[in-house]
Amino acid sequence: MAGEGDSEPGKSFKLFGFLDVKNVPCARESVLYGSLGALVMGLGHFLATSRVKRSCDVAVGSYICTMLGYWFYCRYNLAQQRIRQRMLKEGMKNRILFEGSYLDPEKKQSGSERSDS
Description:
By secondary structure, this protein is mostly helical. The protein contains three helices and two strands, in the order ββααα.
């Protein structure tokens, strides 16, 4: 009885109360790279200056910048990939549709090559 609610297959993790890390593309990687960037920058600033409050400010700022930077980079690449997939899908559909008909581009090329020889 106690283990019934623990292993839900559709359970998602919401970060900041609204960012569903499991279902939103690029969210997990953005959060991980942001936290790694914050750790490196905050620790580096602390080792260089020994100012705790300023180092925490640098860590928070670098978290936000790194997370948003990677978020936009990842979403841009995802959009490009979806456009390429859509173009490939349309091309495959057109090839299947026009294969063997008079509109087939390969048939036109092979027919003109035969008349030239």
